[in-house]
Amino acid sequence: MTAHGKLTGKIALVTGASRGIGRAIAQRFAAEGALVVASARRIGTSAEDPGTLAETVAMIRQQGGRAMALAADLEDPAQRDHLVSRAAEAAGGLDILVNNAGLAEYSPIEAMPLGTFERTVDHYLRIPFVLSRAAIPLLRARGAGWILNLGSVTALSPARPYQDFDRAGGVSAYAAVKAAINRFTEGLAAELEADGIAVNSVAPSTAIRTPGSERYIPDGYPTEPVEYLVETALALCSVPARRHTGQIAHSLHFPLAQGLQVRTLDGKGELPPPVIPAWAHPALGQPELSAR
């Protein structure tokens, strides 16, 4: 089976697209026809340079998709503040903004340097705020649009009795900021619904092993395939705001509840329906299956 062109004619800016979840979203969106502006700190010297935008763009083009690389260090205010306008100018507009980039640094609060806390707030709240603010008039000019923020299941309150991860994982500050981005998502969705601009959040239901997360995931922990999160991202960025906006979606629960067919990153293959594992956060529950 081939992809269905759900994003044909759309322009998507995906931050943190040199590897991991951002790269996967860029691949899947391009497979559905979007022109993807892939952004990260560096472009790289060649398509063989691992973990770079050059490699991401080469992978997309090899699959028949369209993509361009745009380097930006989001910790540099000048580069951060001009990324959205640069992307729109290079690509000819903007329809979708995916706020994926981030740098997770876990530490118990007592031992956390203030600089680590400030970087966490910058990456997961200030940067999405700045990029979203810059994107809104561009999306409004197109008559509709989509903003997607990357959330985290850690934003949910720790379940009792506390697990070892919650006791010693040092995730509290990161999780608090991820909870804030969920509330930001819901509030911005309300502000922009009348403009036809959807604002949603997507997070893993459990954990996805990526170059950025693997140091925090114990060896042998059963992680989930990234394709389920990516299919959720696509669903939230390809339908009108009146259908899905203000959603705090999770990668296994949303496709199951919506009856989505989950596809491979090139859009050509199919994955089985997700299964909610016993270790998923109990607050997520078991989704009711869609009647569709």
TrEMBL record:
Tree of life domain: Bacteria
Residue span, Ketoreductase domain: 10-205
Keyword check for Oxidoreductase: yes
Membrane-crossing segments per the record: none
Protein name per UniProt: Ketoreductase domain-containing protein
Entry keyword Membrane: no
Family designation: Belongs to the short-chain dehydrogenases/reductases (SDR) family.
Cited Pfam families: adh_short
Listed SUPFAM superfamilies: NAD(P)-binding Rossmann-fold domains (SSF51735)
